[in-house]
Specification:
This protein is of the alpha/beta class and 290 residues long. Helix content is 28%, strand content 11%. It folds into 2 domains: 8-134, Rhodanese-like domain (Oxidized Rhodanese, domain 1), CATH 3.40.250; 160-276, 3-Layer(aba) Sandwich (Oxidized Rhodanese, domain 1), CATH 3.40.250.
Length: 290
C-alpha cells in the first residue's frame, strides 16, 4: 500500500510513485477538474486530450446531490461510493487529487471525500496539472476504463452547515464566517458576474479570497504564510469557523489550507452565496460599509 508523505504531494513525488499502484490497487489518481461556465472549458474533453498517466476522471461537475434544494450540494454517500467504485477505486485506496482549474477544484473533491468518511489517505497534487506540465512530466490521452471496485462504506457528510444553521448563527455569532470570494464580489454593489445575483455577503462575514492562500503558480503557500493570511483577515484560528463562497467550491480551498496548518474543525456552508443570495428572505450586507 502506497503511503502518502503529506496532504500535499509534489509532481516529482507522484511521478516516482505512479508505478507503485494502479487506480484501485493502492494508489488512485483522480482528475477533479471542474470549471465555471464562463470559462468555456469542458473538463471531460480536456482530460481525454491530456491527463496524468493512470488517472481517472472524477466528473466533479456532476457529482452532487441533485435531489437537494441546495445548489451543487455535497453528494450523498451512495452517489459518491458509486462514482468511486465505477472508477475502480478500492475502498481503502490512497487517493491523489489534482485539477487544471482556476478555482482549484481538487480541494472541493478533498472536502467531499474527507467529510464523507473516506478511509484511505488523501492528498492533493500541489499546483495541479499546471505544475505537472511545468516539470515536463509525461501525459496520456484517451478515457481509460477500469474494472469496477467494491463500493466504499461512506457516511452522510459532516462539517456541513445549512442555511438554517447560518441564520441561527446570525443571532448568536458563535461561529466566525469567512467568505472565499474575491473582495469585489463580497463588498461590491453590482451584479455578481458568476451567479448573476446581487453582490454582497452574509452579515458579519469576513473575507479571505481563496487566492490568498496560494502562490502565483497555483501551489499552496507555506504554513506560516497561510496562518498569516487568516490572521490578516481577522480570523481567530482557535475559534469556530464556517467558510462560504459562491457554491461551496473555493471555500473548500480555504478548508484545505486550514487542514495544512492543523485546523480540521472548520465547517462549510454548502449552499453559500448561490443559496443565500437567491433567497429574498435572507438578510444581506452589501457595499463596503454595510
Amino acid at each position: 500500500m502506497t503511503q502518502l508523505p503529506s496532504a500535499l504531494v509534489s509532481p516529482q513525488w507522484l511521478a516516482d510513485h505512479l508505478d507503485s499502484g494502479k487506480a484501485g490497487e493502492g494508489l488512485a489518481v483522480l482528475d477533479a477538474s471542474h470549471h465555471l461556465p464562463a470559462a468555456g472549458r469542458d473538463a471531460a474533453s480536456e482530460f481525454a486530450a491530456a491527463h496524468i498517466p493512470g488517472a481517472r476522471f472524477l466528473g466533479l461537475g456532476n457529482l452532487f446531490d441533485a435531489g437537494s434544494s441546495v445548489p451543487y450540494a455535497v453528494p450523498t454517500p451512495a452517489q459518491l461510493a458509486e462514482r468511486l467504485a465505477g472508477l475502480g477505486v478500492a475502498p481503502d485506496a490512497a487517493i491523489i487529487l489534482y485539477d487544471d482549474s482556476a478555482i482549484r477544484t481538487a480541494a472541493r473533491a478533498w472536502f467531499v471525500l474527507t467529510a464523507s468518511g473516506w478511509r484511505g489517505e488523501i492528498a492533493i497534487l500541489d499546483g495541479g496539472l499546471g505544475q505537472w506540465r511545468a516539470h515536463g512530466l509525461p501525459l496520456a490521452s484517451g478515457t481509460p476504463a477500469s474494472p469496477p471496485a467494491a463500493p466504499a462504506s461512506l457516511a452522510a457528510p459532516t462539517r456541513v452547515r445549512s442555511k438554517a444553521d447560518m441564520l441561527a448563527n446570525l443571532g448568536t455569532a458563535s461561529e466566525q464566517v469567512l467568505d472565499a470570494r474575491s473582495a469585489d464580489r463580497v463588498y461590491g454593489t453590482g451584479v455578481d458576474p458568476v451567479h448573476g445575483l446581487p453582490m454582497g455577503r452574509i452579515p458579519g462575514a469576513l473575507n479571505l479570497p481563496f487566492t490568498e492562500v496560494l502562490n502565483a503558480d497555483g501551489t499552496y503557500k507555506s504554513p506560516d504564510a497561510i496562518r498569516a493570511a487568516f490572521t490578516a483577515a481577522g480570523i481567530d484560528l482557535a475559534q469556530p469557523l464556517t467558510a462560504s463562497c459562491g457554491s461551496g467550491v473555493t471555500a473548500s480551498v480555504l478548508l484545505f489550507a486550514l487542514h495544512l496548518i492543523g485546523v480540521d474543525t472548520a465547517m462549510l456552508y454548502d449552499g453559500s452565496w448561490s443559496e443565500w443570495g437567491a433567497d429574498p428572505a435572507t438578510p444581506k450586507a452589501q457595499g463596503p460599509d454595510a
